[in-house]
Amino acid sequence: MGKYKIAFFAAALMASVAARADDSTSAKTEGDAATQLDAMQIRATAPDLPAIPANVPSTTESFTARQIAESVNSVSSSGALLYLPGVHVRERFIGDVNGGLAMRMYGVNSSAETIVYADGLLLSNFLNNSCCPGPRWGLVQPESIDRVDVMYGPFSALYPGNSVGGVVQISSHMPEKFEAHAKFDVFNESFKLYGTDQDFTGVHGSASAGDKFNDFSFLIGLDRLDNHSHPTDFTAAKKFTGAAPLATNYTVVTGAHVDLDTANAVRVNTAAISMDHTVKDDVTIKLAYDFTPTLRGTYLFNQWRNDSDKNVDTYLRDVSGNPIYSTYPSASTNGKFKYLKIGNDYYTVTAPSMSHSESLYSQHALSLKTNTKGVWDWEANFSYFNYDKDWTRASSNNFGTTASLNAVDGSDTDTNGTGWRTFDLRGEWRPDGNLDSAHQLSFGYHYDMYITRTDKFNLVSGSNFQSSLDGALSTNSRGRTASSAIYLQDAWKFSPDWKLILGGREEEWEAYGGSNYNASASAAYRSTSYAEETVYKFSPKASLSWQASDAWNLKASYGRGVRFPTVQELFANQGIKDLNGASLTQTQINTLIGANPAAQALLTTNNPNLKPETADSWDLTAEKLFNSGVWRVSLFGEEKQDALISQNDTSKLSGYLISSVQNIDKVRTYGFETSLQTSDWLIRKLDLSGSLTYVHSRIEEDKANRRLEGTELTLIPEWRASALAVYHGTDKLSYSLGWRFSARQHTALYDTSKNAYPDPNAETYGGRSSFSVFDAKVLYKFANQWTASAGVDNITNEKYYTLYPYAQRTLFASIKFDY
Predict the structure, then answer these.
(1) DSSP readout, 316-328?
(2) Which of 35, 244, 359, 662 is most buried (most C-beta within 10 Å)?
(3) CA–CA separation, 157 vs 337, rounded Å?
(4) How far is the C-alpha of 285 from the C-alpha of 300, rounded, in Å?
(5) Closest CA to 279 of 233, 232, 230, 223
(6) What's phi and psi for 551, nearest 5 deg?
(7) Dihedral (CA of 85, 89, 90, 94) sign
(8) What is the torsional sign of CA 329, 331, 337, 343?
(9) Residue 178 gets which letter from DSSP?
(10) Cα end-to-end span (Å), the chain
């Protein structure tokens, strides 16, 4: 009950603060900031409560550059979201490219159900709906961020159906005069888990410079990260249950670490893997030209390079102290490494796989935009994002004393050519010729195309896996999706206190060029190509806001979001499992195919006929502005049809589970959220903010697996909360203390064969644990252009998990120059 006490205490505290605050709403003088909450725009007296963009029909929260600098230690741009309500980024370590975004009703594996933009350019990766990869946070230097706006739900017609979870807008600026910035960070994590007990260190540096000459402006930014991460994964031994083997068929080892897994079964951990040494280089060039005082053209080029070595560390030692990596890859092989004896039992152990990967991504973007603030404004944007290089070589089949580094077998996965293209044309019409027009009509056209291309090869055995040639093709997948949309939205202020926003979005979606290949199947089933598919959908939007008084604003919003399947949901190879949920070995697959040849089709066929998911969402929000800040309470929910969720289908192949993304007929979710921002309340120079989010989500109808009806969805915690205190000792010195909380969440859907959720023990590696984490930072401007900071994340050294362990206590030190 402790987590519920914490949550309700936080809610009661925020309500108490709001009730006790001075809610005087006397008129301000002309020089003061306006207090009017027009369409949920907040221009509060506190200088760091940012103004929310105009005509947003959804609840919005923001964080400014100053707030980021004073309270966030993270060297990733995702750190800007750390304390925003109902938001979480799955950053397991500094430099994690798989930093999935969670917002309110959507978990960290819902990358295609939230949108992240940077200056209008798409950072989200809609090739898949997963944590991996997450938005391309590395394409934005944290120091370049002016502000971050988070808009919850699919309530604006201006955004595609991927906005069902919400939209993040990261904003920066172009220089108006010469400016230069440089920052250097060092950090150290002390990590202890199983047989790993060591420090992991890293450095980060960034520099940018820009200027404006007459009508031309430019900004060049460089960023480099070199970090060693803690292990994010571990290998476990599999117990042998037969008669004791001959003495010539096993080796006695020590060093294993025993614990309980998520199902409370005994687990014997034998090695740490995925200790990621990542080196990232990022360059950004932005050019702008003002053709007229109200017409600007902008070009952006970004190149992001990431080299990654995921190293391993075996815990096992034989009686002579030699490291032991695994048993023989083939169970039929006899010899001293057929089994390993750990304690009084015998085990088989899979070799810990290490890998080397190289990635090079390029992005080009062009925009042309007017800013007359009069009757007409126009905007055109084009972006191109491409995987110029993206391959990973992984080791396999080493055994005994042969280190994974020296493995002669492995695989090479190549996704070169994957990427996306987007185009947007948008207009604004204000009949009254100004920003206060009674009507503001937004309209436009959108196009996007996503391309997936993945080839996996078995390496030619005999030389080191890092240098050996590609051998036979093992699997591949191909496919494209494209969508076109037209939209219209009118913000109508039909009285001084009322605003109605109505909109609609008509979308055409296509999937084409899809194919799969799996060398494990016979020739008749090895390759599969899919027919083209086209779907049309319309999404209505509506929002009504009422400024009940100078201090109170009320808003009701409704929106339909249609999220179309991603190319990898449609075309990625699926898996066959036994009724206990275990993946089949190649031997088992061969046996199955021999008894049921038609099952071969399931090796390559995913589900190219997936329907789009449709979410009808609503939000009721009350917001109160007082002299020292703002308090918000929101009720929200959605009913989703044909939800795209990975589950095990028992209807396709008798006696087996088919693991794939499927349409679940109906999912219902609702919740509430409250947030508070104050400045100089109770204590002068002290800024306080906090939030609390509750979510209830259940499967209402599932024809593919009726026993899942009434059960919880994965990766959605019931409770999230955060709190942040920043004290300004002087104009040059600040101290911050932050708190982040999440209740536990399920790793997988309800196990109908056992009538229980599969993870009763979530507080361990492999689980999705709860956490309560404290962070602190001190920022000091010691000279006119120099700032230093020191901080610590996870002060109490909490061990918490998102399948993989998050970072333990991490120390930061930074120095920054601004001109």
Answers:
(1) -B-TT--B---S-
(2) 662
(3) 62
(4) 6
(5) 223
(6) -105, -20
(7) negative
(8) positive
(9) -
(10) 51
φ, ψ of residue 169 in degrees (nearest 5): -115, 115
Name the DSSP class of 532. -
Residue range 723-736, pLDDT digits in tens: 999 999 999 999 99
Could you tell me the two tokens for 536? 């049309």
The per-residue pLDDT for range 456-510, each reduced to its tens digit, is: 999 998 889 999 999 999 889 899 999 999 999 999 999 999 999 999 999 999 9
Q: What percent of the chain has pLDDT over 70?
A: 88
Q: How far apart are alpha carbons 96 and 254 in whole angstroms?
A: 32
Could you please report the per-residue DSSP string of 686-748?
EEEEEEEEEEEEEEEE-TT-GGGTTPBPTT--SEEEEEEEEEEEETTEEEEEEEEEE----SS
Of 190, 164, 197, the C-alpha closest to 272 is 197
Beta bridge partners of 448: 422, 483
Sequence-distant (≥ 6) Cβ neighbours of residue 686 within 8 angstroms: 679, 680, 725, 726, 727, 728
pLDDT, position 588: 64
The pairing of strands 733-742 and 786-793 is: unpaired
The secondary structure of 611-634 as a DSSP string is PPEEEEEEEEEEEEEETTEEEEEE
Total length of the chain: 819
3 state SS of 406: helix
What digits encode the pLDDT tens for the residues 53-103?
Answer: 567 888 999 999 999 999 999 899 999 999 999 999 999 999 998 999 999
Locus of tokens 């890998």: 355
Q: What residues does each domain of the chain span?
A: 2-818
Show Cβ contacts of residue 12 under 8 Å, excluding neighbours closer than 6 positions.
Answer: none
Instruction: Single out the residue of 680, 684, 801 nearest to residue 745, CA to CA.
Output: 801
Tokens standing for residue 802: 């998102």
Distance CA 42, CA 53 (A): 9
- Spatial separation of the C-alpha atoms in residues 605 and 607, rounded to whole Å: 6
* Angle at CA of residue 559, ends 677 and 672, nearest 5°: 40
Q: Which of 250, 266, 249 is nearest to 258 (CA)?
A: 266
The C-alpha atoms of residue 368 and residue 477 are separated, in whole angstroms, by 36
For residues 91 and 227, what is the distance between their CA atoms, to the nearest angstrom? 14
Residues 302 and 462: their CA atoms lie apart, in Å, by 39
Pairwise CA distance, residues 126 & 449, whole Å: 10
Residue 286 structure tokens: 């932005």
What would the CATH number be for the domain defined by 2-818? Answer: 2.40.170.20
Report the relative pairing of strands 167-171 and 115-118 from DSSP bridges.
parallel
